[in-house]
Amino acid sequence: MLKVGVFGAGHLGKIHIKVIAASPKLELIGYYDPNLDLAQSSDLLKKHKAFQSPEELIHAVDIVDIVSTPQTHFSIAQKAIEAGKHLFIEKPMAATVAEATEIIQLAEQKGVIGQVGHIERFNPAYIALKPFIENPRFIETHRLAEFNPRGTTVSVVLDLMIHDIDIVLSTVKAPIKNIQASGVAVISKSPDICNARIEFENGCIANLTASRVSLKKVRKSRFFQKNASLVVDYLTQQVEILTIKDHDPESAEDLAVVLSNAEGEKKQVLFENPTIPKTNPIQDELEHLASCIENKSIPRVSLKEGAQALEVAHQIIACMEG
User: Fold this and answer.
1) What does the pLDDT look like over 181-233, one tens digit per residue?
2) Residue 77: which domain range?
3) Is the residue at 155 inside a domain?
4) Are 300 and 127 in contact (CB under 8 A)?
5) pTM of model > 0.70
6) Does 150 lie in the same domain as 64?
7) Looking at residue 54, which CATH number applies to its domain?
């Protein structure tokens, strides 16, 4: 069982602490947070050891779980890698692309395995839909959230949209040709709502919208490809699959609708709503890293992929500012 230390005991850090403590595959050694008052303000934190320094916790574990503010990711990762410890780094991977690149180089030099916390890759709804995604031509994503001051220290692109950037990059296997973006700072000093259009060299277009000033939460992606429309709801963990085939009069497939196009050709429209198993994506991504360490394999969301998502996020931010 691999020993884990959590860096950062804020909202998400507490979730990681709770999940690791309950995992049959991981052992929680403790946590570190520079705000020492947190240990006394939470019943959960009182149950676990609060370390007095980063170095002390790094020395005691096999995996360093970085869930602190993005500005601290690089310094903690650097110390962990130099000590030969494996890494889990919450998104965004680092404050800058240069820092992310250096983390990758250091990890390769030390033979350290690292994973970035793009949690939607472990969402059971996305996992169920992924086998049906084949060469999409248009992708539309919406990630809307109610206003929360806790996330406003960074742009909405790094706070929310980066999830969908990672999904799009992992889906479209082609270089980016062009990026356009616009954003508005409604309440915060940095943009609270952003729309980005990413054009790939294979012709695929991705239209991404993220907002943290909405009245309700929405986390959806739609994939449009030849003869199919696919929808994943990350929030409710539901999937809708619509496929179109030439009409077969002998077919008795359930939920089929027959339509005629302008040329008079009859098409059969099939609707599927697969049953999605309920899982805990945070537990799954952390235990996945443990398995990769044991098997010496590359994690589903590697450090390089985390850096690629960060780079595109910064390109989108530059488009807004330019």
Assistant:
1) 999 988 888 889 999 999 999 999 999 999 999 989 999 999 999 999 999 99
2) 2-112
3) yes
4) no
5) yes
6) no
7) 3.40.50.720
